[in-house]
Amino acid sequence: MSDHDLPLPRRDLARRFEAVRRHTLTLAEPLSAEDQAAQSMPDASPAKWHQAHTSWFFEALLLRPHLPDYRPLDESFHFLFNSYYEGLGPRHPRPQRGLLTRPSLGEVRAYRRHVDTHIQQLIARCTDAVWHEIAPTLELGLNHEQQHQELLLTDVLHLLSCHPWRPALIDAPPAPIAGGSSEWLRHDGGLVEIGHDARAADAAATGFAFDNEGPRHRVWLEPFEIASRLVTCGEFQRFIDDGGYREPRWWLSDGWAMVQQQGWKAPLYWVDNSENNDDSDGGGDTASAGSRWSVFGLHGLRPMDPAAPVMQLSFYEATAFAEWAGARLPSEPEWEAASALPGMAQLDDQAWQWTRSAYHPYPGFRPLDGAASEYNGKFMVGQLVLRGGSLATPPGHTRPTYRNFFPPAARWQFTGLRLARDARPRTETHA
């Protein structure tokens, strides 16, 4: 049966499945087999592992339980490429994923083809009853793979930053960043609704959302103001020049301890040219003699662009800058409520934005059924919420209700900040 013969919902998911899976391979294409096997730190995973794990997800949650007579390509992959699903059995330790020299990259690619072929068979052959059961999981798997596409880029970027050459992943100059001044946008607060509403009459039109994005609920907000754009590298440099990393009064206690323990002096991939005057080969463009800072990114090591949003910040650095600037971070309800304000820029295409909100369940939250119940809920402790999206997020993957989350010390993601502050009283005018 060709996809033209499938009902429209099945045809749409089948084509999207093919496109998402192909995009993962496109992202990994510039990398050598050696690049794709290495793991630079316990929090990162090899590019080869990301490609295998996203295949494992479809196999474990769809093919094994729903495709009759399905035969795995290799039974050992179920152990090797499980991430954190306790209910689906034991797994290889996360910090040791870089030791998986076998299977080879070629065998992982064969595994992907094997899974792709059988997923398409499942879509084409299953009964309507089975289709209604598996379609939500298939949609979840596509969004799961898109999350891993961004993780693949951030993990590879950390890996390449450890190499003396600091090689570029993308062999082209980055697109220029539209500058412009930042303005304070006012929100009058009050009772607002946030979160995804899966029960709405037009829920199908609102599209996919992860379980942690709902239920939709009401929160009370005091009047506040929020910056129209993200904090830039030039603005963050002024914080550095003013002794921001040497002055404890701007920092939360745990953050100041990290500064002392880790020797933080700037965002993760900033290179101080006054301390690094060697001319290493292979590193791409380097900063001019008159520029103190270079920044390593997907396009290699380049002079710091003062107009570009600052990235690779921990929550601690974001809160310290906000304190220094006489402002604060927005809460996640403030961020979501403000996302529709006229003039809001750089919402989801540059850097994820730290909020001052802990990652907790919304009132009435219930995890998904089955193995997917472990997807989000069990991580709702010790994490901070980020909102928006980044330049590494696949297009179309984000929405105003999206909740990203990381521990406060994490710096290797495309994480930045947007300032907020309590609203000043409105000036009354009298005739």
Structure report:
By secondary structure, the protein is of the alpha+beta class. 34% of the residues lie in helices and 11% in strands. It is built from 11 helices and 12 strands. The strands form 4 sheets. It has a 4-stranded mixed β-sheet. The chain has a 3-stranded antiparallel β-sheet with strand order 1-4-12, with helices on one face. Strand 6 and strand 7 (300-303) form a beta hairpin. It is globular. The termini are far apart.
Give the structural class.
alpha+beta
Strand order of the biggest β-sheet: 10-9-8-11
Distance linking N and C termini? 76 Å
The low-confidence runs, each spanning 5 or more residues with pLDDT under 50, are 279-289
| Rg over CA atoms | 23 Å
Number of strands: 12
Beta-strand residue fraction: 5-15%
Count of separate DSSP helical elements: 11
What helical percentage do the residues reach?
A: 25-40%
What is the residue-mean pLDDT, rounded to a whole number? 93
Largest sheet: 4 strands, mixed
